[in-house]
Amino acid sequence: MIAFVSGPVAALTPAGAVIQVGGVGMLVHCSPGTLARLHLGEEARLATSLVVREDSLTLYGFADDDERQTFELLQTASGVGPKVAQAMLAVHSPEALRVAVARGDAKALTAVPGIGPKGAQKLLIELKDRLGAPTGAVPAQHAAVAAAPAPWHEQLHAALVGLGFAPREAEEAVVAVTPEAEAMEKPNVSVLLRTALQSRNRTR
């Protein structure tokens, strides 16, 4: 298992980063929150999890060991693969997920693209004894996200759909700007909409 990678950031993409390790560029798939902390040319250290499939080897990167462990624990639930687990961590921090599961908060899980009400209820049951109890270290902004989707989330999603985006595309765009929204004292939907549109235009 590759526990972590460390080295200068050689390239950044919307879905991941290339970390130069011993003269080799390692492609690491990261959530938007993790990518936001990386800067081209600067040294980075990412905890990693290698997902092995018959036709591929995919390396996922995380800001710390807690994120990596949560990513791996999430995949022990039926129907949760690496992409869904990564999406869950893109919307919620590990502690926010522990809080949501401990409270039986299905609404918080439905904020994740691809998880509906029935799937959320099933996940709450399966993850209850796997993620562990909350540590009490959840930041205020993540506690708010765990309680329910933030108002800006719904407003931004509605605005994107109104501009012609498919619901799934709109959710992906919302996830992409979540780190920026959480960094704002009061998320500005207009600013986030511009960022989301610019992000989607770059990836099309």
From TrEMBL:
One GO biological process this protein is involved in is: DNA repair
| Subcellular location, record wording | Cytoplasm
Q: Which GO terms describe its cellular component?
A: cytoplasm; Holliday junction helicase complex; Holliday junction resolvase complex
> Which residues span the membrane?
none
- Give the quaternary structure: Homotetramer. Forms an RuvA(8)-RuvB(12)-Holliday junction (HJ) complex. HJ DNA is sandwiched between 2 RuvA tetramers; dsDNA enters through RuvA and exits via RuvB. An RuvB hexamer assembles on each DNA strand where it exits the tetramer. Each RuvB hexamer is contacted by two RuvA subunits (via domain III) on 2 adjacent RuvB subunits; this complex drives branch migration. In the full resolvosome a probable DNA-RuvA(4)-RuvB(12)-RuvC(2) complex forms which resolves the HJ.
Q: What is known of its domains?
A: Has three domains with a flexible linker between the domains II and III and assumes an 'L' shape. Domain III is highly mobile and contacts RuvB.
Family membership: Belongs to the RuvA family.
Q: What is this protein called?
A: Holliday junction branch migration complex subunit RuvA
Its gene is ruvA
